[in-house]
Amino acid sequence: MKIAIAQLNPTIGNLDHNAELILAAAQQAATQNVRLLLTPELSLCGYPPRDLLMQPAFVEQMARRLPQLAQDLPPQMAVLVGIAVSNPTAAQLGGKPLFNSTALLQNGQVEQFFHKRLLPTYDVFDDNRYFEPGSASEYFMLDGLRIGVTICEDLWNDANFWGKRNYAVDPLAELAAQNVDLIINLSGSPYSFAKQQLRESMLAQATQTYGQPILYSNQVGGNDDLIFDGSSVGFNRQGELVCRAQAFESDLMTVEFDPISRDLQPSSIAPQPQDNAEIWAALVLGVKDYMRKCGFSKAMLGLSGGIDSALVAALAAAAVGAENVLGILMPSPYSSDHSVSDALELAQNLGIQTQILPIGELMQSYDQSFAELFQDSEFGLAEENIQSRIRGSLLMGISNKFGHLLISTGNKSELAVGYCTLYGDMNGGLAAIADLPKTRVYALCRWLNAGDNPVIPEHILTKPPSAELKPGQVDQDSLPPYDLLDDILCQFVTQHRSPAEIVATGHEAATVERVIMLVTRAEFKRKQSPPGLKITDRAFGTGWRMPIASRWLPSSVPASPKIALPTRS
Amino acid sequence: MKIAIAQLNPTIGNLDHNAELILAAAQQAATQNVRLLLTPELSLCGYPPRDLLMQPAFVEQMARRLPQLAQDLPPQMAVLVGIAVSNPTAAQLGGKPLFNSTALLQNGQVEQFFHKRLLPTYDVFDDNRYFEPGSASEYFMLDGLRIGVTICEDLWNDANFWGKRNYAVDPLAELAAQNVDLIINLSGSPYSFAKQQLRESMLAQATQTYGQPILYSNQVGGNDDLIFDGSSVGFNRQGELVCRAQAFESDLMTVEFDPISRDLQPSSIAPQPQDNAEIWAALVLGVKDYMRKCGFSKAMLGLSGGIDSALVAALAAAAVGAENVLGILMPSPYSSDHSVSDALELAQNLGIQTQILPIGELMQSYDQSFAELFQDSEFGLAEENIQSRIRGSLLMGISNKFGHLLISTGNKSELAVGYCTLYGDMNGGLAAIADLPKTRVYALCRWLNAGDNPVIPEHILTKPPSAELKPGQVDQDSLPPYDLLDDILCQFVTQHRSPAEIVATGHEAATVERVIMLVTRAEFKRKQSPPGLKITDRAFGTGWRMPIASRWLPSSVPASPKIALPTRS
């Protein structure tokens, strides 16, 4: 029996478009005699639809669209479509109004529904806000085979794999106990760094444990801050990878299920990008899809001559083509000569357009406006920020005038400690590298330059990073060296370690305390930041829900001998 | 037996401060021979602590603080304290790592824990992200009385009252079946308009149904976008209100429980503000607490001479004192004369300071910067927005220089349809009236003026609203009249009605479609807006989780005969 996975890139809420994607995949699959077609989780509305699910008209439109799709599909094919459906007993028995479901479409009909049982509520997930968990794990019969249906999180509760239970029930174990021949999974599993290795380890162990093959169909594409990486896979009952779809691209992958051996047969295995190549591919897809799905064809950004904007320019060019990217240089009297020359060299290497708008006169105009009010004070943060806000206003003026998407260039390290200007360099519709620590920005640029076409001028990689908001300023006047800072941030933000635990790894207590204080105080800036493409397990996006007017500063840093701060390597 | 409710205003995460609030209330209660003291939900950490709960060090600090508090409390008093505690079987049985609990402190000990059973996940609530539901509703014995313990949402599942079940279990019914003498509830129930009436109706019905009195202890104070209104109450077994604490203020309320009649005795009933007075009190508290808890003593805002900034100036003056409020007037060549004179009159009425910073020269500087790039285009939205961004940058410059909190002045109607400038008039640390529709802004100002001290100049109330970003501009050039707009917005945003349903209430189909399109397209602006004080059931804050790059525009508006748009009344 031939099975196909349609690794689709739906647009949230665009039901007709998404239905057409499913239909087109089915028609292509039909030419290959596919008997069963899988699509991703909630493939009809796209994942995550979030509060669109609170509009009854939206849910009704979905419910009407499904039987229509069933009629349009090739009748000889069984197609599994993801859809949110009403929970008919919610009002009577108590419960959420919807199920997150998989619909089996066949013979022109909607034949059966399967409901997601494990509803994630951690990180970016709010499944429990909308959905009632399904009460049983079930299979359907196809050509004499029992095919067990799971949805995304349903697979993520293997106590042996995780060393603990995440949920009270394990759908996988329940299906295995029903002696199914194949377990299929419709997923909307967002990308984070190296997550595919985790998924494959988990699926390998699950298939080995139960001796039942698994086919895993993941969504692909960018939806706001979330990137879905695709990389749908199949594992046979020996726990071996038998097929893998493209990473970060739509795909239609076929695989043969042999009814005699009751197992998946080896098929094509697409290469999985690793390390920097993986992050690069994720970010390019995130930028491309945000622009496409919001209706932008051209991107723009401020080019400072620094490494962050260099990387974002390269990303934008890769996402929508260099000819569709405009870089704006906005030197001030405090800008170094190389800030312009490095930016122009970068732009030339990339082939993007540039404009130069010096800001000196605008700075003078603001100085004059503030002259009376600020007369007794010295040049300080207010004046530094004004420069950034002039640039932000110029960028938005151009964005408004020409309809380009402004992409902001801040990295995760500065967003964490607030080393960025609200309404200034934070401006933009999308923050492309907001989840990349500064050290990773460097690594990614070096990787990019090691490729066929080195585009980042070497000087951008070697000069000390600087916001250039006052003469001679460098980032390390205000911040610990980035390798130290990023390590502390990773421990505090991602791993939720206490100050004492971080100090125990060799950091100076005063530095740790200061970094944590900066992180806590910068919450108000993050609250107003554009969506930032999620790359790590813990991004400052929809999965970061921190109070602002709060006063928890862990004060348990033990007194420790002064540790000399190493200089930047 | 004397019982007291400590209606506290904790600061999120400030465990020592919150413990001191509890202790001070207990000491005061001890002077009145109080036997049992209630505090609000999660009173030790403040509600909602959000992702602070993901830091193990935070949870551990709370766990250590509780027995210390127990030792410090008057030993003869039973005190109920809200705290998040570890779920010891989470890893083994599956489940969330914490319980949302009430601790019974007595005799210097932590004697017992009670866990919240119904975990809300709608609107602003994420309880299920952190907490495992408790599995049973229990009581404790005090002087021979059975006192049943519930936490907030546990009371909100009366199928008779709501006409439907919200959850599968009903803790209230379970406690009633155990023949408790009194049901107590520790709440962190955020304010929304007229919610107290709803709470009291619900509690009246519950006490009548089960014939058991209820004491309801609510948190008070502002925490980011949420305002907690206090108004803690008691209902006797006949369903009569016997006591009510202050609205929007900390309070210590005592009430007598008579062990013979096994009922609460009538006590003091604080007045409950209604309608505009209620909203006003809520907003003043929201501004005051955001400032206090973030460490600001002075506020500032842009004064345009319009009604929104007039209301926000009055709010700020009421919250922190007129002497701590600075209004900045930033007239442009397009500004009317009355924009300055009305603003100055307002400032004089309020007694706040002002500064005038004309923006004409800055506009010219931007024009010159853009001259070459914009040479082939006409004056349009880009230029209009520049004026707003100049003002936003001036305001932030002053805020940065002097450490004043900038309060933004946008209302809900403009935030809904995007009639506001990102990085311009949206700038600020707090959006004081972001959940007030424009028609409510007018109503609130008229109510304010009807009081002892009319402060809003009459001309501000009567002139047509205008952003004054080009000559002769008024809001209604771009938007439907506000009474129509607000009605459509209420139906679409709050009531989740479909376009067809809205049209059926008498609105023109084209207007409805246009408004819905504007709302959908403005999502990117709302994503970057400051926290806005929540006043309605459906605010654009933590409870609004809408995708940006999405394409659902309900297209089911039926063709309808042209309905003449009524002019503004």
TrEMBL record, chains A, B:
HAMAP family: NadE_glutamine_dep. Coiled coil: none annotated. Deamido-NAD(+) binds at residues 385, 414, 525. Its EC number is 6.3.5.1. GO terms for cellular component: cytoplasm. L-glutamine binds at residues 122, 189, 195. GO terms for biological process: NAD+ biosynthetic process. GO terms for molecular function: ATP binding; glutaminase activity; NAD+ synthase (glutamine-hydrolyzing) activity; NAD+ synthase activity. InterPro entries: C-N_Hydrolase (IPR003010), C-N_Hydrolase_sf (IPR036526), Gln-dep_NAD_synthase (IPR014445), NAD/GMP_synthase (IPR022310), NAD_synthase (IPR003694), Rossmann-like_a/b/a_fold (IPR014729). This is Glutamine-dependent NAD(+) synthetase. Pathway: Cofactor biosynthesis; NAD(+) biosynthesis; NAD(+) from deamido-NAD(+) (L-Gln route): step 1/1.
